[in-house]
Amino acid sequence: MARTEREKMLAGEWYTCMDDELERLRQLARAAVLAHNTMDPGARGPMAPALAALFGRVGAYVFIEAPFHVAYGFNVTLGKGVYFNAGCTILDTAPVTIGAGSMFGPAVQIYCADHHRDPALRAAGQEIARPVAIAENVWVGGGAIILPGITVGRDAIVGAGSVVTRDVAPGATVAGNPARPI
Question: CB within 8 A of 178, min separation 6: which ones?
Fold first, then answer.
């Protein structure tokens, strides 16, 4: 039996992102993001209901500032007390797990999608999804980018503007491009 592009994406296999089912799912996410980003902050509270309903799991006391962007939402799990400052993006083609008490400065980007290196396959929309795991009590400074397949350990700090290309050990502080322990 042929597997759908969504099934391949969720299995961590090469898939075509330019697929009707995946586009419908992204449209649902765009609508929830629009509701969150345009809702009066007093009415929205910590997060617009449409955005909260989109996520796989949301712990208590999660707060997401607007604007915010997520590709699908259903792959995102947020622990208790997670905070995202304004302008953050999660491209959740694979599971993104964020532990309790983790905080993200403005314009942090978390990417799961990795595109094919062959130009013809890349042009055809071939990509692969790699999960991102961020443990409890992590601080990610503004403008940092966390690349596909990365794990950030408990109590770690990622410096502002860093590009995280390798796993970060628990308790470590990393900074730079590429991010290195300091």
Answer: 163, 164, 165, 166
C-alpha–C-alpha distance, residues 104 and 119, integer Å = 33
DSSP character string of 72-103: -STTEEE-TT-EE-TTEEEE-SS-EEE-TT-E
Given a contact cutoff of 8 angstroms between Cβ atoms, the answer to whether 53 and 31 are in contact is no
Q: Which two tokens stand for residue 22?
A: 């995946």
116 is known as an active-site residue: no
Tell me what percent of the residues of the chain surpass a pLDDT of 90.
97
Domains of the chain, with CATH numbers? 5-181 (2.160.10.10)
Q: Is the full-model pTM beyond 0.85? A: yes
pLDDT tens digits, one per residue of 99-137 = 999 999 999 999 999 999 999 999 998 999 999 999 999
DSSP 8-state secondary structure symbol assigned to residue 164: E
Six token digits for residue 127: 């990509």
Contacts 24+ apart (CB under 8 A), 35-44: 36/64, 36/66, 36/68, 37/66, 37/67, 37/68, 38/66, 39/66, 41/66
Place of tokens 């209901």: 49
Predicted confidence (pLDDT) at residue 1 exceeds the cutoff of 80: no
